[in-house]
Amino acid sequence: VILIVRPSLFSNALRRHPWVATRLDPLELRLRRSVFDYRTRRARARIGRGLDIGSAAPPFSLSDLSGRRMSLDALLTAHKPVLMLFIDAFCSNCDQLLPEIADWHSRYERSVTIVLISQGTAARNRAKVAAHDVGAVLLQEDREVLEAYRVFGTPGAVLVDADGKISSGAAWGAEEIRDLVDAALVSRHAAAVVTSER
Questions:
Q1: What is the pTM of this model?
Q2: Which DSSP string corresponds to 13-57?
Q3: Between the chain's N and C termini, which has fewer beta carbons within 10 Å?
């Protein structure tokens, strides 16, 4: 439904009924949220839920915060799955997840390699993770690795198994990433502990 209202009638209505102005903000917010949700759903449908499980993980070679190169092959030499977490130097939602990532890195280190793949300068990312031991942080030039893995945005995540195959769908946002960790890492960690104790 499209309503066309003459400006004079609108201003008169506001003078006679000031409560109308208080109703505009929530309506406008709901409309903007609906537009955002619609665009998000369309973009996500276009990008999909990541690469097919069991397909080969796209190779990469990126610099860490010290300028050393690290590749996917190098990460896989530990014979452990690799949890790739995509962040951005200017992503505030990523900041909120960093304490949990540090906890996962500490808790599941024996059973999985956690690596953060970020955007932005080394200095900016160094400052971002300074208060948290999150493991390796690698820098992509733009979004080339994120797009190669068909991850929707940041924060995002995908699990690669020890054989270099995609082991999970692409997770986007804190809740989906937590679900991925709960579903994939907790059971793997428990199995690794049992194996090491035999």
A1: 0.72
A2: HHHH-THHHHHHHHHHHHHHHHHHHHHHHHHHHHH-SSSPTTSBP
A3: N
